[in-house]
Specification:
Elements: H1 5-14, E1 18-20, E2 32-35, E3 39-43, E4 56-60, E5 66-68, E6 74-77, E7 81-83, E8 88-93, H2 95-98, E9 102-104, E10 116-117, E11 120-125, E12 129-131, E13 136-143, H3 167-170, H4 178-185
Antiparallel strand pairs: 1-7, 2-13, 3-4, 3-6, 5-12, 6-11, 7-10, 8-13, 9-11
Length: 186
């Protein structure tokens, strides 16, 4: 069952949902508009190889914006810390950005129960597109789980920075701290 805008507001007020900072003007009938953080990681590995750590270039977004280029994957974060121990999150892009040729949350739109952080956003475009820090880029909805709950305590659920793939996670072994990851791959 999906929460309505008023139910999201009530859950934020009661503390069962975290959206920080929270702006009631960003509520929708059954979601909340999240905003883009101020940093991107551009994936520069060519070709991308899930068996080795990703190479990235850090881009600090300014009020002048930044032009995304086709054929590149960018990782950003939500400006807000979002999550819940009681509700499952689902993050999607806004249709207004889709109409501009921007794909957000390419494959990982379902959040995990118990993960509360700034979410990594997977971003790509089909045409050059200028983006700005703090712009509304997507919507998060909250769903009531049914059955026994098993909160997510994995590596990605604790990160609040744009995070590229982990070769261990891709291989099905879970993510490893960066130091251990270097030992495994060298």
């Amino acid at each position: 069952m999906i929460l309505t805008g008023p139910a999201i507001r009530q859950a934020v007020t009661s503390g069962t949902i975290t959206i920080d900072p929270f702006d009631p003007h960003l509520l929708n009938p059954n979601s909340y508009n999240y905003r883009l953080g101020d940093r991107l990681e551009e994936l520069t590995s060519r070709p991308a190889d899930p068996a080795v750590p990703a190479r990235t270039r850090t881009i600090c977004l300014t009020d002048d914006g930044f032009v995304l280029q086709p054929g590149t994957v960018y990782l950003g974060t939500t400006a807000e810390t979002i999550g819940s121990e009681a509700f499952v999150t689902s993050l999607i892009g806004r249709s207004s950005l889709g109409r501009l040729g921007c794909f957000l949350q390419i494959s990982a739109d379902l959040g995990q129960l118990g993960a509360v952080h700034r979410w990594t956003l997977e971003i790509t475009v089909v045409q050059p597109l200028r983006i700005y820090p703090g712009m509304r880029v997507g919507q998060v909805s909250f769903w009531r789980p049914v059955g026994s709950r098993s909160p997510y305590y994995g590596h990605y659920g604790t990160l609040s920075v744009p995070a590229a793939w982990s070769p261990r996670a891709v291989a099905g072994h879970g993510a490893a701290p960066a130091l251990l990851l270097q030992e495994v791959t060298t």
